[in-house]
Amino acid sequence: MLQTIRDKFTGWIAIVFIVLISMTLVISFGNMDQTPLQDDVVITVNGEEITLFEFQEEFSNKLVEFQDLLGDEVPEVLEQSIKESAAEDLIIRRLLLDYLFESGYRVSPEYVAELIRTNETFLLGGEFNIENYKAILASQGATIDQFENDLRLQLEINQLRRGFIETSFITNAEFTQFIELQMQERTGQLLTVDSSRFMDQVVIDPSEVNNYYQNNLDLFQSNEEVDVEYLEISIEDVAQQVKFTADDLKEYYENNLDRFVTNEERKSSHILVAIDEDTTDEQAAELIEEIQSKLEVETFEDLAKQYSDDPGSAAQGGDLGWAETGLFVPEFESALFSMNVGEVSAPVKTDFGYHLIRMDDVKTGQQQSFDEIEYELELEYSRQLAEEELFVLADQMADLTLQSYNELASVADKMNLELNALDAFSRTGSTFLHQDLEMVNILFSPGSIELGENTPLFQIGDSVIVARAKSHRLPSTREFSAVQSDIESFLMNDSAMSLANDYAEGLSTQEALSFSDLAAEEGIKIEDFQILRNSTNYPRGLTEAIFSMHKDLIDQEFVVFSEMDNVYLAKVSSVSSGDLTFFSDQERSDAKSDLSQQYGSEDLNGLAQSLRENAEVFIEPGLYEGLFDL
User: What's the average model confidence in pLDDT over 380-385?
Assistant: First the structure.
């Protein structure tokens, strides 16, 4: 996608993540043009190095996730937590991968190949096409080796997690106790006090406001900021202008006939004896020969189920399904594509161990008709035309912004584009421009701040963007007059909440308190509640407070809990344990499976935490404070 533009202006690499459940291909871009600073090592884990570039990419990916949840503007208060989370995830990932390697976890190339071959992203006309596979990865700047290695690592981590789940044994007594506690229901009455009813009792002395300001100056520091203007050309906008006829599409098909031929496919089965920490090369070679000799009296399928170490095919009698060249490791592929139907190979050695391969069937390559792939052709051709036009427009924009040097208004006029503004842009914000850290660094560079220079062209998502800083502001303490009203509101709300808390605490000490007697008072809400541990119709903290009360104190004491502008006073009148008799056999089985997965995940988290606690980790001071120009 937009490869020519990337090569011309910035250079990009795609980082590919496979979500194992849906096997949907997700692409995110990161700039390869690393500055010397980005090569700096900012974290070491047991002597292994993690660079600033890796940290920035992890932080950017997490930032995008939060933007999807919260919108483009992520509260600055979360950014420190996001940075810390990015660092910890990198550390844990490195530790887990080392653990997987040392523990001998391996995923066979055949299993990886099968997942790729059945991934809808790589299908063309309902069939896997190796050239289409290569083209998709190449268009994202990813190599086949990089993509398949990333997928293999994800599968190995999933294999480790599955091992924990499968060994999590839940007794009937544990399951019954779990249901009784987790499905427990508590009922009672809830009184909600709105703190605003006490606002007329609050008096804030002006000196309190000034004192708060003087004692908390660090809370009123502004960020270093620039006001940004930018131009954007998106491929979606360009695509709306692209037009082509049915004849154009057929001509495109005719000119690319060789791309729309299915490759020869071979259906095969195999038996793998893995070489790992428990099995030496000599032992594996001896066992595979023993298995080969048993083929005279036992079926290939039965032997695969009994002996094969490939988790993806053993249960299916070794069946690997259909595959074409380029999906298996060279030694395996060379043997398979030299065999006849029904033939079983001699033992074939690969990096994973020894294989016996049986060639089950063959399908020769077939020309796909225009009608079969017309829809895919339309998408591909329209995308290609849009990319070509986008390149022309980007080339024009690059020339004009170079000529204009430090202004974009003339470029906007000549190209009939809207000149967009983004004010109060900080180094650590969460706008869409923050997705490219080099763009941020350039906007805060001396050339940008002092001369207002236009940036180079950047690709962010499917858009080409150029920007410049119009004005610059250094960090400073905001004037008292600018924050005075905010401080007054904060102090008044804080005082009102204190009065509401005092009121609720006072009620909780009264003997024979009747909530109904208070129902008529302004700012008071009375309701009956019926609540489970996982209920979402009340604040989570309130639910936890209600369930934290010991059963012996039911109907004797009150729960007082405050959140936002409300104070809650709850009186629990009854407790009902969860009852297994309400569940069908299927529901019990599903719940037990869910609980095993929960326990397994907890065990995996425990392993990760143990590895973290025993690891030698160094994090560069200042990594979270913006000293590395994040």
Answer: 85
